[in-house]
Q: What sequence folds into this?
């Protein structure tokens, strides 16, 4: 069974809700998903996963520092995560607040790890970007992301 780490930072709960929706979607599709706040992820668990879905609130157009800390600590496994799948999600305060930049910053880190990222068409191209709490639109985007991510995992 494929196993995915869904991790996030969230101060007021919006990104956490997205992480819960993503985890539920993975489990429904028969994928084992560990939902863990980023501060609690044992860095040594990273090589054991087939994929990573990482969420951060938009803080000044990039990821919140606990997510960056996690990414920086993941350098311990540089070259050991190659070929695994990765995706990102974010919540921001306003439309156009820089959410795409947040996603690309997170995805860039996983590309540098040699991970494989699925692009998306017809929805947020780099991953779901909620405005505040996730709504019905984000529910649909999460469904599509999870479906594509599951298909990607099968190919890797
Ligand atoms: C330090 C800080 C910086 C922020 N910067 C931005 C920003 O650049 N653009 C934006 O749209 N929202 C920004 N926000 C708003 C948050 O991204 C937004 O409230 C988000 O939904 C919070 O997610 P959470 O509930 O998971 O903590 C910022 C909030 C904080 C606390």
A:
């Amino acid at each position: 069974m494929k196993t995915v780490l869904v991790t996030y930072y969230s101060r007021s709960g919006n990104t956490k809700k997205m992480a819960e929706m993503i985890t539920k979607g993975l489990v429904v599709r028969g994928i084992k998903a560990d939902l863990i706040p980023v501060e609690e992820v044992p860095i040594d668990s990273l090589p054991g996963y087939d994929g990573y879905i990482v969420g951060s609130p938009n803080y000044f157009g990039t990821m919140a520092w606990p997510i960056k800390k996690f990414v920086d600590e993941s350098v311990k496994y540089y070259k050991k995560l190659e070929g695994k799948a990765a995706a990102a999600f974010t919540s921001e305060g306003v439309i156009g607040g820089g959410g795409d930049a947040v996603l690309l910053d997170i995805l860039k880190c996983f590309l540098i790890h040699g991970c494989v990222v699925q692009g998306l068409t017809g929805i947020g191209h780099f991953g779901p970007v909620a405005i505040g709490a996730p709504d019905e639109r984000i529910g649909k985007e999460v469904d599509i992301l999870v479906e594509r991510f599951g298909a990607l995992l099968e190919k890797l």
